[in-house]
């Protein structure tokens, strides 16, 4: 089967499926983003989460990594307040963990070049833990993600192990990360719009590809002065902000498609 035709079949099947996530719909902060990608013939999204603060309660036999084996005490895609967390903690009977998880977006791409364009924009927008995988059947997937997560244990066997003051401190950090996550999503969306518009123009005028070949994000980037950097998706200030905030040592979970 022609790869393009098979990709269209995969896309039609995926977009026709019912949303089986807990929420049952796309998160508000990424609705336009998902629509933008799904409207393009070379992309479609398979799963997404705009970012969230969650409180999980697990078994009493140690902290489990899998969220599937835990009870969801609290989940919000908005800033969280201490009173909500304290009320949820009263229901904990095992080992409760407070987590902040940033944007995760999975996109199937028609071909590797399409994935590289999206990957380059994601990296420049602050999602520096993003990656591309290519399957045996030619499925090219891009996972958009960053590393500014947070995961802190709060209770053991139902007993609170930290003070309310510390929980308030953690929530300030989590809410700050949520706000930074939102800024990155907006930056990513705006940069992606420009990149896709440029790609459309280039496809209409193939000669432009020759001019742009040496400017590819997958070639060595030349050092430029601040004036040359004007108008780029990622400013020096944003670049430093991302470098300071992204800690490669923090693990990031990728949500399954049934999230």
From TrEMBL:
<dbReference type="GO" id="GO:0008168">
    <property type="term" value="F:methyltransferase activity"/>
</dbReference>
<feature type="region of interest" description="Disordered">
    <location>
        <begin position="210"/>
        <end position="259"/>
    </location>
</feature>
<keyword id="KW-0489">Methyltransferase</keyword>
<dbReference type="GO" id="GO:0032259">
    <property type="term" value="P:methylation"/>
</dbReference>
<dbReference type="GO" id="GO:0008033">
    <property type="term" value="P:tRNA processing"/>
</dbReference>
<comment type="function">
    <text>Probable S-adenosyl-L-methionine-dependent methyltransferase that acts as a component of the wybutosine biosynthesis pathway. Wybutosine is a hyper modified guanosine with a tricyclic base found at the 3'-position adjacent to the anticodon of eukaryotic phenylalanine tRNA.</text>
</comment>
<feature type="domain" description="tRNA wybutosine-synthesizing protein">
    <location>
        <begin position="10"/>
        <end position="193"/>
    </location>
</feature>
<dbReference type="InterPro" id="IPR003827">
    <property type="entry name" value="tRNA_yW-synthesising"/>
</dbReference>
<keyword id="KW-0808">Transferase</keyword>
<keyword id="KW-0819">tRNA processing</keyword>
<dbReference type="Pfam" id="PF02676">
    <property type="entry name" value="TYW3"/>
</dbReference>
<feature type="compositionally biased region" description="Acidic residues">
    <location>
        <begin position="238"/>
        <end position="248"/>
    </location>
</feature>
<feature type="compositionally biased region" description="Basic and acidic residues">
    <location>
        <begin position="225"/>
        <end position="237"/>
    </location>
</feature>
<dbReference type="InterPro" id="IPR036602">
    <property type="entry name" value="tRNA_yW-synthesising-like_sf"/>
</dbReference>
<comment type="pathway">
    <text>tRNA modification; wybutosine-tRNA(Phe) biosynthesis.</text>
</comment>
<keyword id="KW-0949">S-adenosyl-L-methionine</keyword>
<protein>
    <recommendedName>
        <fullName>tRNA wybutosine-synthesizing protein 3 homolog</fullName>
        <ecNumber>2.1.1.282</ecNumber>
    </recommendedName>
</protein>
<comment type="similarity">
    <text>Belongs to the TYW3 family.</text>
</comment>
